[in-house]
Amino acid sequence: MPMQPLDFEEVCQYVNKNIVVFHQNKINKISSLKLTDILKRKNPYLFKAKNIAVASDLIKDILEAYLSSSEEKMFGDFLEGLAIFIAERTCGGVKSAAQGIDLEIDMDNIRYLISIKSGPNWGNNSQKNQLVQNFDRAKRVLIQSNAILNVQPVLGICYGKAKKTIIKNHIKMEGQEFWTFISGNKNLYVEIIEPVGFEAKKHNEDFIVKKGEIINLFTREFMKIFCAPSGQIDWTKLVKFNSGNLKGNVV
Predict the structure, then answer these.
(1) What pLDDT digit, counting tens, does each position of 95-137 carry?
(2) Strand ranges (E), the chain
(3) Which of the residues 78, 123, 150, 212 has an alpha carbon 20 to 30 A from that of 134?
(4) Would you list the domain boundaries of the chain?
(5) What is the fold of 6-91+199-251?
(6) What pTM does this model have?
(7) Domain 95-195 class in CATH
(8) Taking the mean position of all CA atoms in its chain, how far away is CA 171?
(9) Pairwise CA distance, residues 125 & 133, whole Å
(10) What is the mean pLDDT of residues 72-83?
(11) Torsion of CA 91, 121, 73, 10, to 10 degrees
(12) Which of 193, 162, 171, 218 is nearest to 33 (CA)?
């Protein structure tokens, strides 16, 4: 399918609608947390090494560490959806049903199988090897079915400056090059930054209020369980709760 011009007003409408969902998911995520969940998932030795003595400071650090990873995943989902939306409008792209493949595009008699990641540091070696296997499997199915013979897997990364490279069985594109590939617009990677910030101040203020409430609640709960009567953090009790798994050692 020949590349069609992109209606940027449609892009803005999509972003404005779906960025609200991203911010709401952030609030939903933090609202559903339990203190014991985040204490079990973070490294108590690290926080002791940072010489944290104030319970509220410890809770803030643990909460920030937990939220940063989940926020990256949620925003990655938003960017993946945006890329698929744009490809649908410009080149008839469709969301793929193949395992590990997000988008399929037919251009110039080539079927592009695209896996979308938000940033260049997206996975470990095992996950990258799995992506190679997913590309091989999806390509093999297409060729064996005689649906299409010329298949090109692509790893599309939404931000990053690295030039297009060939990695094993696929092409990797980052940043401007990837957004240009799916839209035909060399400036799109810059243009989308404005709608992404739609009502960001208001949404962030709502999130900060909710986070403050959670920090206060968790601090009060933490002090009841993991602080001595003097107010000092009982690191031994905290480490036992986090890592103790032999009989007689679990808090």
Answers:
(1) 998 999 999 999 888 999 999 998 898 889 999 999 999 999 9
(2) 94-95, 103-107, 110-117, 151-157, 165-167, 170-174
(3) 78
(4) 6-91+199-251, 95-195
(5) type ii restriction endonuclease, domain 1 (1.10.3250)
(6) 0.81
(7) alpha beta
(8) 21
(9) 12
(10) 87
(11) -30
(12) 218
